[in-house]
C-alpha cells in the first residue's frame, strides 16, 4: 500500500448540507472546521466567511457536497454587534493586538460618535488590516504582520447598510453594523477612532447573522459534540436547498436527465423574468442543480450537483 493510500482517511457516509456553529472566542475558523471534520467523518467541510479568533457567533459550515454551494452564499450580508474601546489603538485593530497609541484627552459625546458613524454608511472604501488573511504575492498579510512588516494594500469597496450606536459609557461604545461580505469591523473601529481624533479598537465582537443563517439557529460546539457522542450528529445537518432560498422545481426523470447533461428545459412558471433562479430537485427530492430563466423562456442549468443528486 502506498504512503498516500495509507494516509488517506476513509470517509464516513452521511448527508450533505449546512451546520451553523456559534463559534466561541479564541477558536479560529480553521479550528472549528477541523473539529467538524472529525465529527462528521469527512474532510469536505468549508466555512462561509472567516471570523477572527476574538469574535464569536454565526459561522456556517458546508458539509460534504454542500461545499459546492458556497459560491451561492458566501457573499451574503453579515450583521455584527461589537464593543469599541475608544482612546486606544492597537496594531491588529482589536484587543488581541499590541497597543500602539493612547489618547489622554476628553472622549467624544454619544452624539459626536453617532454623527461620525454616519459617514461610514453606504458604499465606502476600506484598507484591509495587516492582521488579515488577505494575500499579497501569495502570502497572508498576518504572516508579514507577525514579522513586523507592513506592505502596501489596495483599497476595497464594501457596502455598510447600517452602522448604529446602541450604548455609550466612556470609553466603551456598543455598536451594531450590517454590511456586505468582506467588510472589516476592526477597520471600521480604527477608521472611526481616527475620524473622532481619539483612536479606537474592537474589544469584543459577535456575528449575529451571515445571511441566510442567524444566531438563533447556531449551535454551540458542546451541543454538536453531545450529538456526536449520542450518534445523531447527522440529524443537525440542514438540507442543502433550504439556505439557497430559491423557488423549488421538482424534475421528472426525463427533465433530470436533460439538466444533468447541461441541457435546457421548458419553464412552466410564466410569471418569472429572465435571470430568475430556481433550485431543481430530483424526483426523490434531492437538490441537483441551480437553474436560470433565459429570455427564450427556457431554464438553463447554471450549476449541476451530481453528487448531491445521487
Radius of gyration (Å)? 23 Å
Supply the CATH class of the largest domain. Alpha Beta
Shape summary: globular
H and E order: HEHEEHEEEHEEEHEEHEEHEHEEEEH
Helix content: 10-25%
**How much of the residues is beta strand, in percent?**
25-35%
Largest sheet: 9 strands, mixed
- What kind of assembly state do the chains in view correspond to? single chain
Strand tally: 18
Enumerate how many helices there are, as a single number: 9
Provide the CATH architecture of the largest domain: 2-Layer Sandwich
Number of structural units classed as domains: 3
User: What name goes with the CATH superfamily of the largest domain?
Assistant: Pseudouridine synthase
The first-to-last residue Cα distance is 30 Å
- Detail the poorly predicted runs: 1-7
Question: What is CATH's topology name of the largest domain?
Answer: Pseudouridine synthase
Mean pLDDT: 92
Structural class label:
alpha+beta
